[in-house]
Design brief:
The protein has 698 residues and is an alpha/beta fold. The chain folds into four domains: 134 residues, Chitobiase/beta-hexosaminidase domain 2-like (Chitobiase, domain 2), CATH 3.30.379.10; 319 residues, Alpha-Beta Barrel (TIM Barrel); 197 residues, Alpha-d-glucuronidase, C-terminal Domain (Alpha-Beta Complex), CATH 3.90.1330; 37 residues, no CATH class. Helices cover 33% and strands 11% of the residues. The chain contains 18 helices and 18 strands. The strands form four sheets. An eight-stranded parallel β-barrel has the order 7-10-11-12-13-14-15-16. A hairpin with a 5-residue loop joins strand 4 and strand 5. Helix 13 crosses helix 14. The chain is globular and about 80 Å long. The two termini are 42 Å apart. Bound molecules: beta-D-glucopyranuronic acid (BDP).
Length: 698
C-alpha cells in the first residue's frame, strides 16, 4: 500500500452471518445530480461496502424505498419531500447531520448536503472498523470555519512542505491533471473541512491572470461535490505590481475599484468562492502600513469587495516586523496584541482575524495567543500547523492534537468568567457568527501526502485526542491490537519526546531559526529579529516577559491569567523560561535545577526516540511492506537525529554554564559515534549549507 487513500482505504474485513444481516441491501441517495455531495455520498457508500465487505449494492436516487435494509442519505428537506415526515431528529445546525442505524433502517440526514456527506463518512468509518452498533444521534460541527491553508507557490514548490511538489501548481499555472486534487477533496471532506486556500500566504499576484482564474475555477469544480469551497491568498501590493496602478493604498479609489473588479472576475468563474486570506505588513510582505493606514483599513478593503458575493476575509494576525537591530530588545510575542487590540470593532462583519495558536510561531510549547482574550467585537479563527515546520518536518514522529488541546482547553478567564480558547474562536464566548479553525496542511504529490504515513490530518477540538487517534489507526493500519496499542503509545509519547530533546521548560524548539527550522542551533535563537530570545548567558537563561521586570507580555492576558504568569511560583514549569529569566541553578517545582532538568530531559527524550524504532520493528509482520519500510526509515533517522539534538543542546548549555551533569553523561554521550571516527567508502565530502550544528561544534 502506498498511503494514497489514507484512512479511507476501506480495507477488506471478514463478515460473519450476523454482520451480513446488518449490511444494507441498497443505497438511496436523494439527489441525482452527479456533482452534488449527496450523490457523492451514495457512490462512496457503494464503494465502501464493496471494498470492505465485498457487497455490491445498487443506488437509486429519486424514490424512497422503505425496504428495511436500505441506507437512505439526503438532506432533511429532500427526505421530507421524498420519504415523508422525519421523527426524532433534533434541530440541526449548518453542516450538521443525524445518523440512525437502528433496526436495519439506516438514515443519514443532513441539515444540508455537506452534512449528509459528513454523516456518510462517519457511518463508513464505523463499518470499516467492524462496528455495527445501533446508534441514533445528531452531530453539529464545532465551528462554522473549518479551513485548510496550502502554502503552495505558483512554480509548484511548497513553502515548508515536506511531501513533494504541489498538487495544484506547476510552472506558474494550475496543473492540467487534477486527479490528486479530487483524492485530497475526499480526505478533507471526511474530516469535515469546508474550505481550502490553495496558494501560499506569501502570495504571488500572477494567480490573478485570466488563465489562472479559470484554473482556480477548475479546482473549485473538483472540490465542490465534496462540500469544499476554494479560497485564495492575495498579495497586498497586487494593484501596483500586477495591475499597473501607481499605488496600493487601501483607501485610494483606483485601488478599491481594482480589487472590486478582480473580485467580480473571480466570482464570475467561481460563484461560491469562500474568500481571501491575507498576510499583510508581516515579514517583509506589503501591507496598509506603507500608506500609514491601519490593518483594519487593509482588511476592510477586501471585505467590501467580497461582501456582495458573500465571501469572507481571513486576515492574519501574524504581523510583526522586528527585523532591525534597534528592535532586538523588543518582544515579538507582544506584536499581535499591540497591533490588533486597538482595532477591535473596526473590522467589517465578514472579516475574521486568523491567529496562530501561540504568540510566536508554531513552537513546541507556547501559551495561547493572548489576542484571543483581547478581541470581543471581531470574529477570530485559530491557525494550526499540520506541516511540522519546527516540529521535525515529518521526519520525527509528532502527534499534534495533544499539543493543540492544551491551547483549545485553556481558560483565559476574560472578565473572570470561563473563556476557553475553543469557545472564543468558535464564536460562542463573544457571540460572533463567524469563527473557527484553519490549519496549514502542506500536502504534496508524495503518496504519503505530508511526507510520513504517521502524520495525520484530522482533529476535533472537543474529541479526546487518543480516541480520535485510535479510529485513525484502525482505519489506516487495520484492527490488529498490537498495531493499535503500539502506534497509540508511540504517538502519545511523541510530543513529550520531541519537546524533551529539542528544548523544554518553555525555552522553545532550539532549532536553526534563520534558515531551515530543522536541527539544533541554540546559538541562532538570539541577536536577530527572528529568534525566540533565550537570553542565555553564563549564569542564567529565559526571556523575562513579566510586567514588573520584563517585556510586559504577561500583562496582555486577563488579570487571573496574567497574575499566574507574572510570578515564578505560579508559572508552570513547562513555560518557566518563556516567562522568566532565572539562574541555571533555580529549582523547579519538581525539585530539580533548571540545568539538570535540561540534561535529564534531553537524555530522556532521545531514549524514547530510540524505542520508537524498536516498537515499530515489532510490527513488521503486521504492516504492508511499503508503508512499513517508509516509516522504518523515518524512525531510523529520528533515532539518530534525536541524539544529534540531545548532544548539541546539552553541550551548548554545559559549555555556557560550566555546570556538571550530576549523572555524568555529558562527557561520554551514550550511543554517540563521532563522524570523525568513521570512514566511508564511495562518498565525497561537501560543506553543508546552511551550516547545521552536529559534530565538533556547538
Ligand atoms: C513562518 C514560516 C514562513 C511563513 C510564516 C507565516 O517559516 O515560511 O511564511 O511563518 O506563517 O513560520 O507567514
Amino acid at each position: 500500500e502506498n498511503g494514497l487513500d489514507g484512512w479511507l482505504r476501506y480495507a477488506p474485513l471478514s463478515c460473519s452471518q450476523q454482520c451480513k444481516s446488518k449490511l444494507p441491501a441498497n443505497v438511496v441517495a436523494l439527489n441525482a445530480t452527479e456533482t452534488s455531495p449527496v450523490y457523492v455520498a451514495g457512490t462512496e457508500l457503494q464503494q465502501g461496502l464493496k471494498s470492505i465487505y465485498g457487497k455490491k449494492i445498487g443506488i437509486s436516487h429519486n424514490k424512497c424505498k422503505s425496504s428495511s435494509s436500505a441506507v437512505v442519505v439526503g438532506t432533511l428537506e429532500q427526505y421530507r419531500k421524498t420519504c415523508g415526515a422525519v421523527k426524532d431528529v433534533p434541530d440541526l445546525e449548518e453542516d450538521g447531520f443525524w445518523i440512525d442505524t437502528r433496526n436495519n433502517n439506516i438514515r443519514i440526514l443532513g441539515s444540508n448536503e455537506r452534512g449528509v456527506l459528513y454523516g456518510t463518512f462517519e457511518y463508513l468509518s464505523m463499518l470499516a472498523q467492524g462496528n455495527f452498533s445501533e446508534v441514533a444521534y445528531a452531530t453539529n460541527p464545532a465551528a462554522p470555519i473549518r479551513w485548510v491553508n496550502q502554502w503552495d507557490d505558483m512554480d509548484g514548490r511548497i513553502e515548508r512542505g515536506y511531501g513533494g511538489p504541489s498538487i495544484f501548481f506547476k510552472n506558474g499555472a494550475i496543473v492540467d491533471d487534477l486527479t490528486r486534487v479530487k483524492q485530497y477533496a475526499r480526505l478533507l471532506a471526511s474530516v469535515r473541512v469546508n474550505a481550502i486556500v490553495i496558494n501560499n500566504v506569501n502570495a504571488d499576484a500572477t494567480l490573478l491572470t485570466p488563465t489562472n482564474i479559470k484554473g482556480i475555477a477548475r479546482i473549485a469544480d473538483v472540490f465542490r461535490p465534496y462540500g469544499i469551497q476554494v479560497g485564495v491568498s492575495l498579495n497586498f501590493a497586487s494593484p501596483q505590481t500586477f495591475g499597473g496602478l501607481d499605488t496600493y493604498d487601501p483607501l485610494d479609489a483606483s485601488v478599491i475599484n481594482w480589487w472590486s473588479n478582480i473580485t467580480d472576475q473571480i466570482y464570475d468563474e467561481v460563484p461560491d468562492m469562500a474568500g481571501y486570506l491575507i498576510k499583510a505588513s508581516s515579514e517583509g510582505q506589503p501591507g496598509p502600513e506603507t500608506y500609514n493606514r491601519t490593518l483594519a483599513d487593509g482588511a476592510n478593503l477586501f471585505a467590501h469587495a467580497l461582501e456582495p458575493h458573500g465571501g469572507i476575509v481571513m486576515f492574519r494576525a501574524f504581523v510583526y516586523n522586528q527585523l532591525n537591530e534597534s528592535d532586538w530588545d523588543a518582544d515579538r510575542a507582544n506584536a499581535a496584541v499591540d497591533f490588533f487590540k486597538e482595532l477591535d470593532g473596526k473590522f467589517e462583519e465578514n472579516v475574521v482575524v486568523q491567529i496562530k495558536y501561540g504568540p510566536i510561531d508554531f513552537q513546541v510549547r507556547e501559551p495561547p495567543s493572548p489576542l484571543f482574550a483581547n478581541l470581543f467585537n471581531t470574529s477570530t479563527a485559530i491557525e494550526l500547523q499540520v506541516t511540522q515546520e519546527y516540529l521535525g518536518q515529518q521526519s520525527h514522529l509528532f502527534y499534534l492534537p495533544p499539543l493543540w488541546k492544551t491551547i483549545f482547553d485553556f481558560d483565559l478567564r476574560v472578565d473572570g468568567k470561563p473563556s476557553l480558547v475553543r469557545d472564543v474562536y468558535s464564536g460562542k464566548r463573544f457571540n460572533r457568527k463567524l469563527g473557527g479553525s484553519t490549519a496549514v496542511v502542506n500536502v504534496g504529490t508524495n503518496t504519503t501526502w505530508l511526507g510520513s504515513h504517521l502524520a495525520m490530518l484530522a482533529w476535533n477540538p472537543t474529541d479526546d485526542s487518543e480516541g480520535m487517534l485510535q479510529d485513525w489507526i484502525r482505519l489506516t493500519f487495520g484492527l490488529d491490537k498490537a498495531v493499535l496499542n503500539t502506534i497509540t503509545k508511540m504517538s502519545m509519547e511523541s510530543w513529550p519526546a520531541y519537546e524533551n530533546y529539542s528544548g523544554n521548560l518553555g525555552i522553545q524548539t532550539l532549532t536553526d531559526i534563520l534558515y531551515t527550522h530543522f536541527g539544533p542551533n541554540p546559538a541562532s535563537q538570539d541577536n536577530n529579529g527572528w529568534g525566540q530570545w533565550t537570553r542565555a548567558d553564563h549564569t542564567s537563561i529565559g526571556m523575562d516577559r513579566t510586567v514588573s521586570n520584563g517585556t510586559g507580555f504577561s500583562g496582555q492576558y486577563p488579570s487571573e491569567v496574567a497574575a499566574m504568569y507574572e510570578k515564578i511560583e505560579t508559572t508552570p514549569d513547562n513555560l518557566l523560561l518563556w516567562f522568566h529569566h532565572v539562574d541555571y541553578t533555580h529549582r523547579l517545582h519538581s525539585g530539580k535545577t533548571v540545568i539538570q532538568h535540561f540534561y535529564d530531559a534531553h537524555y530522556d527524550g532521545a531514549d524514547t526516540a530510540q524505542t520508537f524504532l524498536t516498537q515499530w520493528e515489532s510490527l513488521q509482520s503486521k504492516i504492508d511492506k511499503e508503508r512499513y519500510e517508509h516509516v522504518l526509515r523515518r524512525f531510523e533517522y529520528q533515532a539518530g537525529h534525536s541524539i544529534v539534538w540531545r548532544d548539541a543542546i546539552v553541550d551548548f548549555y554545559h559549555n555556557l554554564s560550566g555546570i556538571a551533569d550530576t549523572s555524568k553523561r555529558v562527557d561520554n554521550h551514550p550511543w554517540r559515534i563521532e563522524a570523525e571516527t568513521m570512514s566511508l567508502d564511495g562518498y565525497k565530502a561537501y560543506t553543508v549549507s546552511p551550516f547545521e550544528t552536529a559534530s565538533g561544534a556547538v
